[in-house]
Amino acid sequence: MALVFHKLVSVVEALRLLNEKVGGIRPLDVMEVPLEEALNKVLAEDVRAPIDYPPFDRSTVDGYAIRSLDAAGASDVTPVQLKVVGKASIGLPPESAVGPGEAVEIATGAMIPRGADAVVMEEYVVRSGDALTVYRPVAPGENINQTGSDVSAGDYILRTGTLLTSREIAVLAGLGIDKVKVYRPPKITVFSTGVELVPPGKPLSIAKLYDVDGYVITAMLRELGAEVTFKGILPDDYNSMRSAVHEALESSDIVITTGSTSAGYGDMIYKVFNDVGAELIVHGLKARPGKPTVIAVKGRKILFGLPGFPLSAMMNMYNIVAPVVLMMRGLEPSAELPRVKARIPLKFQAGRGFMELIPVQLVQNSDGSLSAYPLMTGSGSIAGIGLSDGFIVAEEGREYFDENEEVTVNLFSPSLRIPDLNIIGSNCPGIEVVLRVAGLTKQSRVISVGSMGGWIAVKRGDADLAGTHLLDEGTMQYNVHMPKVMGLENDVYIYRGYARRVGLLVKKGNPKNIRGFEDLLRPDVTIVNRNKGSGTRVLLDMKLRQLLKGERPEKVVNGYTYEVKTHTAVATAILQGRADTGLSLEAVAVQFGLDFIPVGEEVYDFVVRKVKLNKPSVRKFLEALSSSDFSKELSRSLPGYRTLPDSGKVVYP
Amino acid sequence: MALVFHKLVSVVEALRLLNEKVGGIRPLDVMEVPLEEALNKVLAEDVRAPIDYPPFDRSTVDGYAIRSLDAAGASDVTPVQLKVVGKASIGLPPESAVGPGEAVEIATGAMIPRGADAVVMEEYVVRSGDALTVYRPVAPGENINQTGSDVSAGDYILRTGTLLTSREIAVLAGLGIDKVKVYRPPKITVFSTGVELVPPGKPLSIAKLYDVDGYVITAMLRELGAEVTFKGILPDDYNSMRSAVHEALESSDIVITTGSTSAGYGDMIYKVFNDVGAELIVHGLKARPGKPTVIAVKGRKILFGLPGFPLSAMMNMYNIVAPVVLMMRGLEPSAELPRVKARIPLKFQAGRGFMELIPVQLVQNSDGSLSAYPLMTGSGSIAGIGLSDGFIVAEEGREYFDENEEVTVNLFSPSLRIPDLNIIGSNCPGIEVVLRVAGLTKQSRVISVGSMGGWIAVKRGDADLAGTHLLDEGTMQYNVHMPKVMGLENDVYIYRGYARRVGLLVKKGNPKNIRGFEDLLRPDVTIVNRNKGSGTRVLLDMKLRQLLKGERPEKVVNGYTYEVKTHTAVATAILQGRADTGLSLEAVAVQFGLDFIPVGEEVYDFVVRKVKLNKPSVRKFLEALSSSDFSKELSRSLPGYRTLPDSGKVVYP
After folding, report:
1. Which of A225, A356, B40, B406 supports an S-S bond with A394, CB 3.0-4.6 Å?
2. What spatial distance separates the first Cα and last Cα of chain B, rounded to whole Å?
3. Which stretches in chain B have pLDDT values below 50?
4. Local confidence band at A432 (pLDDT 50, 70, 90 cut-offs)
């Protein structure tokens, strides 16, 4: 079961090899499309203007076309008399030329009559029948938009390789061009592979996962402008797999599979690519995540076998598939991905022999600059995909990113929407209620890292607010001891949040007859624990310490080392039989149809750095806490929750 | 013909009125779509995780699932012996649970067997048959990716109003969600109006223009995610116009017309909207460009009558139509348009009672910061649309933008591709040849502002290179007198470019029998002149001064005030009979099939600021000038052109 990668190849080298083997990665065909279908295609020809624009001299104002010499010296006291001899309307040839002493009435955009070299605005004339009195002189050429002054016939207008957006469509239409030569977008077939996969919407049996890769790779390729067919999950049978890939290759420029690439899993894809007659050129990429990648070439066609972990597959899309697709479309390999500058808030290792793509979350600092927090979720995460704003690239030769180093962040979306309010800390369904009442749900990001994690995030400055429920055993008070612990005595306020009833969750009917904390020591009872640093964990550890008198809990309490991050995960573990009980909230018990053994009430507060108080979203959030709307909505929607007399008040300092 | 706008309404007020009259601009319908069709739609429901992710505890490494207590204290000298009792493969339930002293072989991603609380990596064990020797301890939970640690069942995952990109698709797929509720994209019908319009591809008769608006508005709406039908140019007949709009309104959420909105042009659209039963709420917008705009409402449906000038129509799309379309899709009104910060290089007036949208070109400074040069092309320009990178907004209350002021630029495209090489100055087809030989065509932007304009751009720092051919009458030398004139003696180099033959262009067969400059004084000859500041104009003025001896040329030379910006525009004017002759290039005469009367040869050079010489693209350009490839390609492709012995050499200082 040892990993046998034939030879790890760097991303740069892989692209070079690919380019060499297919005889240059470039667009395959040129096709002519009507202008209406040209949007988002790439131009395959240099376009020169067939006509001038504007195609005739035209007026830029409403007024009278005249000979400028005729109005020389005109003023309020020495006006000039001219004779109106006709009219020039939009879309029609002027009724008359302009001779000496003559004028032609003209509308904005209408054609300048022969003989006229200027237009006097209607504000500066008085007309009576045919007689026109002009009170101002005009310079030659004044108020005339001259033929070809904008675009001259023969000018290069657009070049091969230009992506046709609405702006280019405007220029082409204006010059009368109704057909353009563009590159045919590459045809790509996508397969998912893996015995563990089930398509979304179907029931999930034990040890199975929903297919993520097929959907996300297909969506990413569409975003890249390719024509994609997603053929679903390949059957787990070598012959059907081979013939499906073979058939897809006939009708595609690129075939992409995900999964089944790791050496530990039988090298299926390696064999399939080989057996459809393709030449293997990469088997293992110096990329993190994304090492187990297979690349093969057949003629000018390319086969990519991407790793199964969603984040790995996505990162390989960015570092190797996207450049190839863009080049096949006729674009630069690095086109399309928008970028911003940001600073790294804390030193961390990266690269070290691999090209590493690291998802980051962006936090806007008060001076408008951005900090990029690396998401260390691992390549198996899907939440990390949703929570990150983009990624940074660590080249192979890099060892670490330094604190405060400036980096370029490749954004996942063209428009960066940084949340207005970052709430980082303890997980609580009550936060949702506050956000709803305050009207802040859309612009907020809630990240669950536990109460302690929240305090650290407040100290670092990336949390606008942190939810916290840490009990001080000495004073039996919640949270107010923490500023001193964190060295933040002069820097933070703590606002009272609300109270919530905590207790032990058990299956409906309480089959193990659990009554309190002492039952957690029973050998026939297995618990699900919360993560270290969460307020609930601190409470449990305190209670267990009182019961155990010096013995280590992991030696006595079954499941003590089984940690989960959120209240709902505790409920799910009990529901699915992985544990018999766990400490959580009454509201969660009700939500999941579990029984609840109350052990007390805890206080949930919000900590905020003083400097963050001038953010309108922070103020809105804190104001909502003391509103009667919030009080009503909290008890209505969350059983076991209530506001306190001092909810929304400062309890520290 | 006076402009009668009923009452100018500000953009903010127009949006407020619209919102009030339609009872809130918001999405109309919710529809359920399969995940495969959800890309780029907007979520119409809050999505909570139906399952945990991962849905089971899984291994993050290849190795053996064990009980961590069993390996406590294991080391190279004190290894621990365990018994392998089975295997856990991806996608399958583990073959066996793990009891004390037991181990189960496990693959990355496979399900952790019951009883095990850690995985020891295969690097730290030696296996022989069933016997497993473990050389390292593992902590509880080590190498395990726990159920729900990434996403917990019940967690809010995505909210109403989220734009579904590939990342959100990944999260939804992973949680097994195969259908989502999204907002139906608005249906929009677009018409062009105007007697002057001809569809692209058809011949253009006198005083007519190609329809730009229909195509660009349709493309912009597609970019905004709407479902658009473009119905072409409306017939110029009131009844057909009314019934076409009436019919479109039946099947659309929004109807957009362009053109025919200015008061000077009969108020057609105003009447049409009124007669289909809609309530007129805006007739004239405090926006520049874009004042002649009509907005009407019928029930929840909206009718926009946009002005006819392309830039005006486009700017109104950004300031009033786009927010409405985005809100109807369920997004924030300001979503989607990417933005960058830049500085204004020179003070200019803007706003003054109107909301003004000003197209800008971005130039990257050597420190990486951006300067935003306003494009003062006027709303009739189509080249300006193609050349600008985005726009800045001057609010109604603003009077000017100050030099060095920081502004936010709304980008037309998500990815900003600032040209690597800005060549601003005299217009010459030879520049194209240099770019081709140097391989720089794609990353360059060539802006024609004449030789003098080029010197100014070099002085301001926005031109990397400027083409110049200015003759000093005193020394009869080209260009080398200019650094002193511009106060740039210590700051620039001038590189010798090439020579090009200039002369008078006349119609094939020279019908007016023009022999030289003296013929330009003949009363039966009309010339087309070049713009002030161009080297060609300077040459002509010099020759005319010698002939005219103090008389003003505009009094004597017909067409002297008829100025065009480029050589090709001179040729077109002669070809179309608007002028008999003009000073230009032999190459252009050949290109347009005109006859050529040579009057001499001029030298075309390139000026560059010393600080720009470290730009690789600048160096590439200048190196190409002395290459033999360039010399050959120049004479081959441009008649009358030749390189000089010192081409590519520094001629100043």
Report:
1. A356
2. 59
3. 1-5, 263-264
4. confident
Instruction: Give strand pairing partners of B187.
Output: B227
pLDDT in tens, B369-381: 788 888 766 667 7
The contacts of residue B634 (CB under 8 Å, 6+ apart) are B430, B433, B498, B641, B642, B643
B161 touches chain A (CB under 8 A): yes
Q: Which residues of A touch B197 (CB under 8 A)?
A: 91
Helix, coil or strand: residue B97: coil
Q: Nearest CA to CA, how far is B475 from chain A (Å)?
A: 32
Burial class (CB in 10 A: 0-12, 13-18, 19+), A342: buried
pLDDT at A3: 39
Provide the β-strand partners of residue A423: A446, A465
The pLDDT value given to residue A337 = 63
Parallel/antiparallel/unpaired status of strands A144-145 and A187-192: unpaired
**Rounded distance between C-alpha atoms, residue A173 and residue A179, angstroms:** 10
CA distance A475 to chain B (A): 32
Closest CA–CA distance from residue B17 to any residue of chain A (Å): 23
The interface predicted TM-score (ipTM) is 0.81
Instruction: Say what percent of chain A tops pLDDT 70.
Output: 95
Contact B531, B426 (CB under 8 A): no
Asked if A206's CB is within 8 angstroms of B386's CB, the reply is: no
User: CB contact, 8 Å: A333 with chain B?
Assistant: no
Measured CA to CA, the distance from residue B348 to residue B594 in angstroms comes to 42
Q: What is the dihedral of CA A39, A44, A50, A56, to 10 degrees?
A: 30
Verify whether the Cβ–Cβ distance A166 to B337 is below 8 Å.
no
Question: Does the beta-carbon distance from B157 to A386 stay under 8 Å?
Answer: yes
Burial tier of A267 (Cβ tally within 10 Å: 0-12, 13-18, 19+): buried
pLDDT of residue A598: 92
Residue A83, token pair as written in the block: 């004779």
Query: How is residue B110 annotated by DSSP?
Result: P
Nearest CA distance, A563 vs chain B (angstrom): 8
pLDDT given for residue B366 in this prediction: 67
For B82-115, b/e burial (b = at least 16 CB within 10 A) is: bebbbbbbbbbebebebeeebbbbbbbbbbbbeb
The strand pairing partners of B233, in sequence order, are B192
Under the banding of pLDDT at 50, 70 and 90, the label for residue A335 is low
Nearest-CA distance B11 → chain A (Å): 23
Contact residues on chain A for B207, CB-CB shorter than 8 A: 56, 90-94, 110-111
- Rounded mean pLDDT, A197-207: 92
pTM for the full predicted model: 0.82
Contact A497, A653 (CB under 8 A): no
Neighbouring C-beta atoms of residue A520, cutoff 10 Å: 27
Nearest CB to B1; choose among A62, A198, A308: A62
B366 burial via Cβ count (<10 Å: 0-12, 13-18, 19+)? exposed
CA distance B69 to B116: 10
pLDDT average, residue stretch A187-195: 94
Residues in A touching B105 (Cβ below 8 Å): 1
A297: which strand partners?
A279, A302
Contact A107 B384 (CB under 8 A): no
Identify the band that residue A371 occupies on the pLDDT scale cut at 50, 70 and 90.
confident
Residue B376's pLDDT is 62
> What is the pLDDT confidence band of residue A1, given thresholds at 50, 70 and 90?
very low
3-state secondary structure of A431: helix
Which chain A residues contact residue B172 at CB under 8 A? Answer: 200, 215
Which residue matches tokens 């003949």?
A: B522
Measured between beta carbons, which residues in chain B are less than 8 angstroms from residue A441? 159
Predicted pLDDT of residue A50: 87
B contact residues 121-140, partner A, Cβ 8 Å cutoff: 122, 140
